Amino acid sequence: MLTTTLAQVRAHAGRVLASCLAIVIAVGFVVATLCLNASSRASVLDAVGAQYRGSALVLSDPGAGGEGPPDPLAAAATAVAGLPGVRATALDRTTAVQLRLPGRSGGSFAVASGLADDPGLRWQRLSAGRLPTGPDEIAVSERTGAQVGTTVTLTPEARGEVDAAPPAPRQVRVVGVVDLRGDPRAGVSGQVFASAADLTAWGATTADLLRVAAAPGTDVAALRDAVTAAAPAAEVLTGDEASAQAAAAFTGDAADLTSVLLVFGAVAVLVAALVIANTFAVLVAQRTRDLALLRCVGATSGQVARSVLAEAAVVGALASAVGVGAGVGLAAVVSALASRTTSPIPLGAVVVPASAVVVGLVLGTAVTVLAALAPARGATRVAPLAALRPVQPPPVRSRAGVLRLVLGVVVLVPSAAALVLLSRTGQLTAAVGAGALSFLGVLLLAQRLVPAAVSVAGLLVRPLGGVPARLAQGNALRNPRRTAATATALLIGVTLTSAMVVGAASTRATATQALVAGYPTDVVVEGADAVPADVQRRIAAVPGVAGTSPVTTGEVSGPRETTAGAQGVDASAAAVVRSQQRSPLPRDGEAVLSVSAADTFGVADGGTLPLTGSAGTRDLRVRVAPDSEQFLVLTAADLRRLDGAAAVTVVWVRLADAGDRAQERAVDAVTDVVTDSLPSSSVSGVVAERSSYDQLLRTFLLVVTGLLGVAVVIALLGVGNTLALSVVERRQESGLLRALGLTRGQLRAQLAWEALLVAGVAAVLGVVLGSGYGLAGTAAVLSAQAPVVLALPWAQLAGIVAVAAGAGVLASVLPARRAARTSPVAAIAA
């Protein structure tokens, strides 16, 4: 039987090509994900752990509190330095600074770190220049934008008492640029490196880490015990342990990403299994006579079944091996592309773990064999002599078909109702379970649902396609099991894709509303002193600014002898803020309080709040805003009646509704105006955050759509494969139609219409189901956090239907050409 099985594989290699491609794509996807995960971890470990390169031990202060030296690690360094086996030590200090480059009106935040005195403990690698050797010399990361030889203004972060004099700016010279490529922290903020003496002068009075270098030949375990005894209050790790701990903080997101990717990989494998099962079912049906002859010459039913499974194992093993190679190649391409961009997940050399290879080979082979179990079992059900006669597929209205229908309805109806209810109440875990059960019900009903939908769609296209369209409708309905199996694979891919598209669009709309509610003002200009009227006019005249509103600040006293700062807004604020959902504006005689303010003053919503200021006393109605972050807000007129010294120190700015880039340019222009006129003021806004959030969601949507597109591609391979096999199966029928006058063009059109009906119906049903699941999923995830805004991106959903239907038609081209090339006489005689 093994010889016969191998001969079958060689004879029908073309027929199993789509199954092989499905396995290759699914296995390649999984292997690439595992390789990229391993590569990412190795790259992060190398980049983030670079700080601990050359360190045998790393000491940190656990921060347990209590009395102790002001710089505990410095005291530990003194005790550790004299221990046997210690070659050198380095205290790592950091502090925040602000850099102002020549030609720029604003400053940028950066983190300053000290350089170790010992060359072996210096981990910084240079891409240009040299490391600092003297005072007021710095090396920087590329993120700062400074070049070697540039003199920049560096201002240390203010520390100590509020009334203390601010640190004096210093002129420092850039002597080197440190290469931080691959470090995920490099893009967060600029990095500055200077001598330990400069770091101390800039306010870094407490060390964050103590790194210890061991002398050659030192036993690190014994040295760790000695260091732990000398510095019992410190946490002692080896250099490798510190590297792994630092990398873990940055690979947590990568691990989550890997889990998400593997979920999509599982979807691809599931769709591939459906394609494989359908392919082998058709192959077995076409080879019924061959299998029957084997039974007649002495082959047992077990041998026939094993031959089908052996064929599946051979096909699965060969395709899985190709898929492993394709996955490694894909990982290499992605790694090469990511190394040239600012990827959030750093990638270096590709790491191919043995587990990825084993998983790929076992997964592909096992899925192929499992998918072939049902066809193999079907090959043994027909008696040898009966199998020599044409066998029609079992009708859908058989006992098994009725049981499937009843079971599908029983599973679908209550689970769908539960999904709606659980989504509204925000019970995510239970909603996921209900969604999975409801989709299982849909799959059980697919044998009835898909043919019925194809029949309806056929009635719509018959006037457009004439005879080929009518024949296509009949062919699609003649074998409803095969039609449903073909459409189901595409249905799964399109449903998941649509769910993610709708979910991302709804999440984006919800997040945008929550962002606007939380930050109702686009830009906030806040001065240390009063903002003059001419500066307000200059801000309002900036291109891209739609409106401004002055905010008065003052000081008032309330019940319980509490003194607090208050803000006063005028009528123009209503046109400037984008939302009053969380922070409502007050009316005359009204005070809007946060929950903490209400607790502080001991008042409740609807009560009366007596306030006293330098100019008088007023009783105001209380309005408590549960979600407001503004402590106390009055009208500007009420605040001036209370505090005669109240002045405009804040300006709210609303930007024109333009693109992200235009709004960012407007923010830069406002910043320039404020920096020139009020150097001690600050400009903040939600525009950049809103833009970043939108970009993140757009990127996520693009990635998810691409990943689920893998499943759709596999499903379309199944459509093409089924059409190709049905062409062979209906060879005599096609020849008879040609003999009766059907032209080659009409025969090709018939197969194209059939593919369009199956793919189009699957795409429409998938979009409808996916939209429902996407809306339900969004509600389940976000309903407990914010008011949910449900959005349907109609253009994208229509695009999914058009692409899936069009791809289905393209999948019919090769089978249609093959059918049209065969002469009628040869087809009938076959």
Provide a descriptive summary of the structure in words.
The chain folds into 4 domains: 1-47 and 253-391, no CATH class; 94-205, no CATH class; 421-426 and 438-519 and 686-830, no CATH class; 521-685, no CATH class. It has 26 helices and 20 strands. Strands 16-17-15-18-14-13-19-12-20 form a 9-stranded mixed β-sheet. Strands 3-4-9-6-8-7 form a 6-stranded mixed beta barrel. The two termini are 27 Å apart.
Q: What attributes characterize this protein structure?
A:
20 strands, six-stranded mixed beta barrel, 4 domains, 830 residues, alpha+beta
Lay out the secondary structure.
Elements: H1 2-11, H2 17-48, E1 57-60, H3 72-81, E2 86-92, E3 94-100, E4 108-114, E5 126-129, E6 137-141, E7 151-156, E8 170-178, E9 190-194, H4 196-201, E10 209-214, H5 220-230, E11 235-238, H6 239-286, H7 288-296, H8 301-339, H9 354-371, H10 373-379, H11 384-387, H12 399-424, H13 428-444, H14 446-478, H15 480-518, E12 523-526, H16 533-540, E13 545-558, E14 562-569, H17 573-576, E15 590-593, H18 595-601, E16 608-613, E17 616-624, E18 632-635, H19 636-642, E19 647-655, H20 660-677, E20 682-685, H21 687-729, H22 731-739, H23 744-782, H24 794-811, H25 813-821, H26 824-829
Parallel strand pairs: 4-9, 6-8, 14-18, 15-17
Antiparallel strand pairs: 1-10, 1-11, 2-10, 3-4, 3-7, 5-8, 6-9, 7-8, 12-19, 12-20, 13-14, 13-19, 15-18, 16-17
Helix pairs in contact: 1-8, 2-6, 2-8, 2-9, 2-21, 6-9, 6-10, 6-15, 6-21, 8-9, 8-10, 12-13, 12-23, 13-23, 14-15, 14-23, 15-21, 15-23, 15-24, 21-23, 21-24, 21-25, 23-24, 23-25
